[in-house]
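Complex record, two chains
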Amino acid sequence: MKTINSRRSFIKTSSLISIGILVSLIPVTDGVAVPFESIKISKSDRVLYSFVATIIPDIDIKNRSVIKHFYDKELDFNKVKTLFLLQLRCTSKRMFKNANFDELTHDQRMAVIEDGLQGCELKSKIFSGAIFLTQVAIYCDIYQENQGSELFRYETAKLDLINPEEYHYARLEGIGARSITIDGNYN
Amino acid sequence: MESNFDVIVIGSGFGASPPALHLATAGLKVLMLEKGDFINPQKDFKNTQSVTYLRKYYKHYPGKGFGVNVIEGLGGGSGFYLGISLRAPSLVFNKKGKDGGLLWPKRINRKVLDPYYNRAEEKLKVSQIPETEIPKNGQIFSLMMRDLGYSIDRAPLAVENCIQCGYCISGCKYDAKQSLFLNYLPEASKAGAMIRCGIAVDYIKHQPKDKFKYTVYATDVKDQKVTYKLKTKHIILGAGAIGSASILLRSKKYLTRLSTTLGQNLKGNIFYKKLAIMPDHYPDGEMYKGYGVPGIVSYEFIESHNVLLIPYKALPVQIMAKVRLGARKANGSIGYWGKEHARLMKKMQKRMVILTASGYLDDSAKLTLNWKDEIEINLDISEAQRNQARNIDFLLKGILTKSGCTLLDTKAVNWKGEEYTDLQFDSTHPVGSCNMANSIDNGTVDSNGEVFNYPGLFVTDASCIPSPLIVPPSLTILAIAERASDYIVDKCRNHENY
């Protein structure tokens, strides 16, 4: 509840500030479109943010690194990104009365993605590839080496020395199963 | 670069480093060629899951039925292994092939290798993990096994003064994990071995009547216009199960009397993993901190199923890049993305258990080169192997469900995130592509690692190991390379024209 409330308050504040300027960025929660900040953001990035927020609903869209994987030239997906965006656009318009993907509600966006996954072999591959890549990039924090992930309490490179209590239970020493080797090697 | 050497060692990992050290110490002029980049652990290694970073070192060969992962860079796999250092169990040396004959040469068994294991352990400072350092996931696994009446053992690790950051897989920048950068390689360099990185060996020629019997043709990896022609009396191939076999395959038109078995016996440890959520009566685990391995293994099913059980500890990238994790939705269906999936991922750190069985691949995959000299791997999975896979899957499910865990739905995916449509094995411990045997009919090299029909040409890495070891192979590769080094040094000292 805390997350939803804080998100609501964030959205409320940002929408008041941007009212009249960002009419298309409809605020609130799960049910509706992704609330973008009043930052300069391209149309295609808006679609990509919306896609990521559908795959991982708790994601912090203020963090620009969450769509970085779509721009990583080292990754093969970069070659099909334009096609992927086109498919999201066309499917949204076909399914929801000419609406853009980033204007759809969460459930509508889910329906568009499901449609992509159920599509022809190429379309399905592109959609499953985009989901896979998004999950790897975000759950693994591959672009935030020095920050870690608040979402998964993952500290990454901030680590210097770990408190033993974090990785070991002193109270469980000596109560495990029996051993069958002398030195850990099986004969 | 000079062009005449006593010995050229190709590769710089577990199979290459002992010969480089011992031959240089014996006073021979040694050149070590490594295809990958030079690595300074403190400077180059990072605590990261960056795909770009990991891809620089981790190379994947996607084969049909059997995919192989290897490391490319100075020190080979030693920079990125988990430090778990086990001796191969005796039963492995008694394994038979499909023709009923023993896979290992008569002269090699656990007893023969034990003195060499001792040497390797001393170099890597291997010791059993103290009870006070066992990561939480290892402790919980130990409780689960106790509750089921099964045994566990504390694993020997090659680690000293570990800070428990959990980043073993991206290279240890704290000099805690005992990689070859801390022992064999600097000692070999001090003894006079020249180490050159970024040079890929193309092929080898043999001129038996010359003083320098072999010529190595190589290319600079970063500037393909720079090529090398290097003459040598001996060659040690230590480029790993993929690297060494592909060099020999490319050299086949010049080394016409190589065994026809070259590349035909690629095998490896195969990993079966089951993911589950622990029941409430077990305390929280910790997936990300502490040693890269939970320090506990179980030999309980090594005789019956030929598996070593290991409770896995994984960074998210190790899970996400390999399996699609399914979460149950409110309507009962399984979803691989969205709200429920994100909720499940939040449980990964403390409540998820990953039970792994390191198993034995009985079938042999074939490693060949296509018309572009690219590596191709093919494995026709036999019905017996499929049955074995089913049995092990059943075993893992049984252990987890009897412990009260809730099994998670997982689908194995390839590196593009596509689900496999058929059974697909993957190994980070490939062996056997230039397997040792009693005769040229059954293998590429003899029990000393010397290539049949080519005196002075050796293979001392994982590729000469004729069967999967079930346990991680690092210590056994070192032991075999140590043993081969003794043989080569002895021959060089006592046979003038060798």
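Note: Confidence is low (pLDDT under 50) at residues 1-31 of chain A.
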